[in-house]
């Protein structure tokens, strides 16, 4: 009996230890959800759920826009507009990858997740920025009045440029993880930033080329430059927004590393990886709003105007549209004046007609100025009723017939 209070005390300590080892899941998450993935369903810290919803909305928007472009591709007849669809579809695919990669930065750390982060961050950004670069190259050639490369060539060039960043990321993983034996999550922020320097170079080149399209146009043709200026402006805004976002996350990420080193604590702060997830989602929406959606709208709008306007194969190439319209109005007025003059010439009185018959002149509105035609005015011409009354034989003229009369 004396041991029973001690046994009860030990059992209470064990139960308390078990309850402390198994904490309750946060609000919105079930007990079967692992701790690294609870940020995706935690309703107490709403930022994870909101960022997840924004990323899913961006991915759905990009997929819907890609389906619209593919379905409307056969109605895009203008080659200058059609050649940019391939690079635009690649950009939408890279944008969907950016939204999907943001989930890898929301959940907890792991070897597989860290490999995905380091292996896909740079290549996905390089794919998006290479698409912007080839679009700037296409607009520069079109603004200069030259022929743009085909859509397959532009898409192949974008994929080739992005593969370089993929090779860089793969070499970095092989050197640090396989050769040196470090963990996949054990890397410095500065190394992560330097591994993405090639993608940043692509972005800088795209920004400079798009700015040249907006300001200079790439040639002397003012008409072509005005035609593609709107596309160049949207492309430059997209590149500029991407540059601002990259400057923000690079400064934030490197400053975070300096703060961690000055604090002299092991590990990394908990707010750097969510910040990278926010950077991914923001960059994806910037590419959608400033480039993908305006470019698709301009392509489909120009296609609609091109299909509604019927081609004029007799249009002189050296005349402007205003000159052609003025020439058409002058021709219409000239034709109307001729018709009115002809109607005035056909209006005559009975006295003029009888005088013309007596003079033997053929009345055409110019009586007196033209010699008469006696053959037309003095030859008897029977009517259809006269032929029917005479059983098909041509009747003879009366003896006192002097001209065409109704008798």
Automatic annotation (TrEMBL):
| Source superkingdom | Eukaryota
Task: Report domain G-protein coupled receptors family 3 profile positions.
Answer: 41-294
A Pfam cross-reference name:
7tm_3
Q: Which GO terms describe its cellular component?
A: extracellular exosome; plasma membrane; receptor complex
Its transmembrane ranges are: 45-71, 83-108, 120-139, 151-178, 198-219, 231-255, 275-293
Can you say where in the cell this protein is located? Membrane
Signal peptide coordinates = 1-21
Residues annotated as region Disordered? 317-336
* One of the record's GO molecular function terms: G protein-coupled receptor activity
**The entry's keywords:** Membrane, Receptor, Signal, Transmembrane, Transmembrane helix
> Compositional bias (Polar residues) spans?
317-326
Q: Which InterPro entries match?
A: GPCR_3_C, RA-inducible_GPCR3
Membrane topology of this protein = Multi-pass membrane protein
Q: Tell me the protein family, please.
A: Belongs to the G-protein coupled receptor 3 family.
Q: What is this protein called?
A: G protein-coupled receptor, class C, group 5, member Bb
Q: Which gene encodes it?
A: gprc5bb
């Amino acid at each position: 009996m004396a041991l029973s209070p001690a046994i009860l005390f030990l059992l209470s300590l064990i139960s308390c230890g078990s309850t402390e080892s198994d904490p309750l899941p946060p609000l919105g998450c079930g007990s079967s959800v692992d701790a690294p993935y609870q940020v995706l369903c935690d309703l107490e810290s709403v930022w994870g759920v909101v960022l997840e919803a924004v990323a899913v909305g961006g991915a759905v928007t990009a997929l819907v826009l890609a389906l619209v472009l593919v379905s409307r591709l056969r109605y895009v007849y203008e080659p200058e507009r059609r050649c940019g669809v391939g690079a635009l579809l690649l950009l939408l695919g890279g944008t969907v990858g950016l939204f999907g990669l943001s989930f890898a930065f929301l959940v907890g750390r792991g070897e597989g997740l860290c490999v995905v982060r380091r292996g896909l961050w740079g290549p996905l950004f390089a794919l998006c920025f290479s698409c912007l670069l080839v679009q700037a190259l296409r607009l520069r050639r079109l603004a200069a009045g030259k022929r743009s490369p085909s859509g397959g060539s532009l898409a192949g060039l974008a994929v080739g440029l992005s593969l370089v960043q993929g090779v860089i990321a793969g070499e970095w993983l092989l050197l640090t993880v396989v050769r040196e034996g470090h963990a996949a999550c054990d890397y410095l922020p500065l190394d992560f930033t330097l591994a993405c320097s090639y993608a940043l170079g692509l972005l800088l080149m795209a920004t400079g080329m798009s700015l040249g399209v907006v300001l200079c146009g790439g040639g002397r043709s003012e008409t072509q430059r005005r035609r593609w200026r709107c596309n160049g402006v949207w492309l430059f805004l997209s590149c500029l927004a991407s540059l601002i976002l990259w400057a923000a996350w690079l400064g934030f990420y490197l400053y975070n590393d300096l703060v961690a080193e000055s604090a002299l604590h092991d590990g990394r702060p908990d707010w750097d990886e969510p910040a990278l997830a926010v950077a991914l989602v923001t960059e994806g929406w910037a590419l959608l709003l400033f480039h993908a959606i305006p470019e698709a709208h301009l392509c489909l709008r120009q296609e609609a105007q091109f299909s509604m306007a019927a081609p004029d194969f007799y249009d002189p190439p050296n005349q402007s549209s205003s000159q052609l319209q003025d020439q058409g109005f002058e021709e219409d007025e000239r034709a109307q004046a001729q018709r009115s003059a002809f109607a005035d010439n056909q209006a005559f009185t009975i006295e003029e007609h009888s005088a013309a018959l007596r003079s033997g002149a053929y009345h055409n509105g110019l009586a007196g100025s033209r010699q008469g035609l006696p053959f037309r005015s003095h030859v008897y011409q029977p009517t259809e009723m006269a032929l029917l009354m005479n059983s098909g034989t041509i009747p003879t003229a009366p003896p006192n017939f002097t001209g065409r009369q109704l008798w």
